[in-house]
Design goal:
single chain; mainly beta; binds beta-L-arabinofuranose
C-alpha cells in the first residue's frame, strides 16, 4: 500500500487517503477562513465562546492598497470550528466616516459590547477611531456617539494621516478602561466609565522608538503586556509593566515577519486554559498578500518567568479546545 501510494501523484494519493480513512483537511488549519480575505483580528471570550472580529480585505489585486469596507464576525467554542455571523458593522455605519474598515477591537462592559473601530473621517482629514455598541457580541452594532472618539487633529506631532488607528481597549480589575492606539507613536488615554469618551489627556509611550502600529494590551498574573507591531515589514514585539500606564520594559520579538504580507496584526486571548496568538498573513495563494490577508491562529506560550516565547506560525493550526 505504502509503495503504491508513493508512486501515485500527490492529488490522487490524497483522494485515496480521504476515501479510505475518512480524513478531511482540518478546519483548524491556517488560515482559518478561506472563502474571503480577513485581516486585523481581534477576539473576545464570552460565555464559553470566542468571538473573532476581522476586517474584510477586498482589494482586487495585491497592488491596490487596503480596500476594506466592513468587519466580519465569527464565533467558536473550540477554536477550530468557526461559525460565520456575517458583518456586524461597516465603516460607513459611522455617518461621519467615509470608509476604510481598518483594525478594531470589541470589549464587553456591563452587559453590552463596544466595538472600537478605525475608520477614515469624512470631514477631518485622516483616520479616526469610533465606537459602536450592541447588546450582542454578534451585533448589529450602532454608532454610540454620533462622532469620532479620536481624530487625526488631536495628535498633530505626527504628520501622517494614518497615525490614529488600531484601537485596543483594556478594562482593568478596578473597572478603569484604557485605550491604546497609534501608528509611528503609541498613544494611550483613560476612558470614562461608559467607555464613550476620553477621560484625561492623550499620552505617548515615549520609550517605544520602533513602534509601528497594532497595540494589544492584556494582563496575566498581575503583569501588563503591551504587544505591538514594530518596523516594516512588521514583526510583533512586546513590553511589560506593573501598571497599565507604564513605564514599559521592552522585550524581544514574539512573531516574525510573515514573509507573504507586510503587516503583522494580532490579538492574544486565553480560552479553556490555553493561550492563543491570533494574527494574519498572506498565506492564501495564489491571491494572498499584503492587501489580501487571512487570519491564522497558533498557540502562545509563556516561560515560567512570565516572558513570552516566540510564536511558531504553523500551517496545521491548533487542536480543538476542550
Ligand atoms: O488593515 C489596515 C491596517 O493595516 C491596520 O489598521 C494595521 O494594523 C495594518 O494591519
Amino acid at each position: 500500500m505504502t509503495t503504491l501510494l508513493h508512486r501515485l501523484p500527490r492529488a490522487v494519493t490524497s483522494i485515496l487517503l480521504l476515501a479510505a480513512f475518512g480524513l478531511s483537511s482540518s478546519p483548524a488549519a491556517n488560515p482559518i477562513i478561506t472563502d474571503v480575505h480577513t485581516a486585523d483580528p481581534a477576539a473576545l471570550v464570552h460565555n464559553g465562546r470566542v468571538y473573532l472580529y476581522a476586517g474584510q480585505d477586498e482589494a482586487p489585486d495585491n497592488k491596490s492598497d487596503y480596500r476594506m469596507n466592513r468587519w466580519l464576525c465569527y464565533s467558536s467554542d473550540d477554536m477550530v470550528t468557526w461559525t460565520p455571523h456575517g458583518s456586524p458593522l461597516a465603516a460607513t455605519d459611522f455617518k461621519w466616516a467615509k470608509g476604510s474598515a481598518w483594525a478594531s477591537q470589541v470589549v464587553e462592559h456591563k452587559g453590552k459590547f463596544y466595538f472600537f473601530a478605525t475608520v477614515e473621517h469624512a470631514t477631518i482629514q485622516g483616520m479616526s477611531i469610533g465606537v459602536a455598541v450592541s447588546d450582542s457580541p454578534t451585533g448589529p452594532f450602532v454608532d454610540a456617539r454620533g462622532s469620532a472618539l479620536v481624530t487625526n487633529d488631536m495628535t498633530t506631532d505626527v504628520k501622517i494621516w494614518w497615525d490614529d488607528i488600531d484601537p485596543t481597549v483594556f478594562i482593568d480589575d478596578d473597572g478603569q478602561a484604557y485605550l491604546y492606539w497609534g501608528n509611528t507613536k503609541c498613544r494611550w488615554a483613560k476612558l470614562t466609565a461608559d467607555l464613550l469618551h476620553l477621560d484625561g489627556p492623550i499620552h505617548t509611550v515615549e520609550e517605544f522608538k520602533r513602534f509601528t502600529e497594532a497595540p494589544w494590551l492584556h494582563k496575566r498574573n498581575g503583569v501588563y503586556y503591551l504587544t505591538y507591531s514594530t518596523d516594516f515589514p512588521e514583526k510583533t514585539t512586546y513590553a511589560t509593566s506593573d501598571s497599565p500606564t507604564g513605564p514599559w520594559k521592552q522585550h524581544g520579538i514574539i512573531n516574525e515577519i510573515a514573509g507573504n504580507c507586510n503587516t503583522n496584526h494580532h490579538a492574544i486571548i486565553t480560552f479553556k486554559g490555553r493561550d492563543y496568538f491570533i494574527y494574519h498573513n498572506g498565506a492564501i495563494q495564489p491571491h494572498g498578500g499584503s492587501y489580501r490577508r487571512s487570519v491564522c491562529i497558533d498557540y502562545l506560550y509563556y516561560n515560567p518567568d512570565g516572558s513570552i516565547k516566540r510564536v511558531v506560525m504553523t500551517s496545521e493550526g491548533v487542536a480543538p479546545a476542550r
